[in-house]
Structures are given as structure tokens and as C-alpha cells.
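agent> fetching stored inputs for the magnesium ion docking request
agent> found them:
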Amino acid sequence: MANFVLLKDPACYVADDWDMAGRAASRGHWLDLFEAHFAETLKLAASNLPETSAPNVARASEEFSTWMARLRRDPTALDSGRLTGMDLDRLRERVMRENELGDPYRRIKDRENALAVSLYGDLTAQLDAMSDGERWPAMVRGIFAGNRFDLGAQSIRHGSQRAPDFFESFSGLKPRPWRVDDLDALAADLQRPGRWAKAVVFVDNAGGDFVLGIVPFVRALAACGTQIVLAANEGPALNDITIAEAHDVLARLGRIDEVLAAQLTEGRIRAVSSGGRFPMIDLANVSDELNDAARDADLVILEGMGRAIESNYDAQFTVDSLHLALLKDEEIAGRIGGELYDCVCKYRPLA
Ligand code: MG
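agent> prediction call returned; pasting C-alpha cells
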């Protein structure tokens, strides 16, 4: 593990600089949220594990509650002396891993991947029928919609088997101009074939986010001559897609999409492990495999609130960069002067 090779100034890089130790309201919000969410995650874990794992679940619950109570009393109690979202991610991951609780979201991710794969063919056919001028903005909207789409997954899980129309979820997006809106400059560059030789894309969730948001976008970018490196988590973190799942889903999509199949076979699109195990990404600790693949890239894309806003919002790169995220948490939205469900399309070309 090492610094990401495309970081501009690794010595000054901080993945998540929002220290809650001195921010009582922010701290209360996140400790409450992590505690409640951890309880839900343990229920899911228990439903996936054999009865014999019950003591592990109980031990994890107690350890995490003890930590939450301690951090409420003393927000500087962690070794780092700081309390950031990344610290809480790290703590949760450690408690889950040490208690061998596996991947609690595995079944949900499998189901959402299967649903999204079933919608992929129609979506790419609709996108392919559009003009260049329409297609790129539609695909950027598609990434936001995909990132939002997983919120709607709840209704699918609880009964309705009807596959929702992905384009319907576009209507739930806020109108432009967005909170940060560089879409015009981005779309103009996207329409210049050969604009980038290679792009590294840090991906977020399984299901509609990856399959209906990211894949159609990188497929179109690859068709314009850009090599694509998809960077997915090594280990499970909530409903984020892992590298093993990304490989599996891409292979399935390749069986229904000749264009993508050729891109995968020729290595124009490939997926590598970022080395990450959290819903955010620490660019001071990425895999050697990613760095080998990224060395000659000239575009970095960070997708989703955890990777693009909560961490790395101000990260600077030696190449062009694009942050794409939907703000799904009010407190995080507030950090950049936004509101819930605002879209962020922050494009920073070097020249
Ligand atoms: Mg995520």
C-alpha cells in the first residue's frame, strides 16, 4: 500500500480533514448514525451467518457500543486523537473483521446487481440512440440517478418485484444548475475523442450505481479511445461494490453487450482493487496494483459522497479530475454549502 501516484502533494494530503472532536453537533449526528446503523448491519450479518456465530455478533455489538459511549465522553479517545468519519469507518471495519462477521450486505448487493443487469440492455440501447450532444449529459445524470437509485432499493426489497424504469429516477434529480455544476465544460471535453488516454474511476455502490451509472459512462468513454481503470474496494464496506463483485458483474454484462465484451477482452476497460475497505477512500493507502495501472492516466474520477465529498473533496491531482456525487446526508451537504440531494459535478481540468 502506498500513496496514490496521481496525488499532487502526498505530504500535505489528508483524506478526511473534518475532525468532529471539536464539533459537538456533527459528532452527535455521526455517533448516533453509526450506532443505529451498526445495529442494522449486525441484524443483516446474523441473518447470513450460522447460529454458531451468535456469540461473535453479540461481542461485536458490545465492543462497538462501548466505543461509541467512550467517544461520546472523550472524542479524542482514538489513537489518532482525532475523530473523523474515516476514523469511524475504520473502527467499524475492524470490529466487523475481528469478529468474523463476513459481508452482511452480500445478499442485498447480489439482488441489486441482478436487477440492474436486467435493466442494462434497455438502458444502453436508449443511450446509443441519442446524439453525442444528448448522450454525455444523460450519462452524467445517469451516474447521479444510479447513485440515488440505491435509495429506492428499499421498496424493491420489501415486496414490489417490478423493475423500476431507470430513466424515471432521473426525474427525482434536482434541476440544473446543480450545487457545483461544471457539466457544460465537462460535456464539451467528453465530446472531444482522444481527450484522455486513460481514466481511473473510483467506484461506489453495487447495483444500479455501478451497472446503470458507471458502466454505460465508461463504455462510452472507452469507445472514444480512453483506457479505463475501474478501482473498486478490496474488502466489503456496506453496499459498496467489491473488486470480486465488479469482475463478476462485468463478465455478466459482457455476455449481453458485444461492445463491452470487446472492450473487456481488449483490456480497454479493466477493474483493479483499490485496496480500500471503507465507504471512503484513503488515497495515502492504495494498492500497488492500482498504482501500476494508474501511472500513465490523465484523468481521475471520484464517484459517490464517501469518496468524492466526505473524503477527497479538496484533493489535488497531477492530472484532470472529476468529482461526481449526490449529497445524501444533510450534515455533509452543509460542509460544502449544499442541501440534501444536491448534485455535485466538480470538474478540474489542468488546462
Ligand atoms: Mg457507498
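agent> quick read of the result: The longest strand covers residues 320-326.
agent> awaiting further instructions
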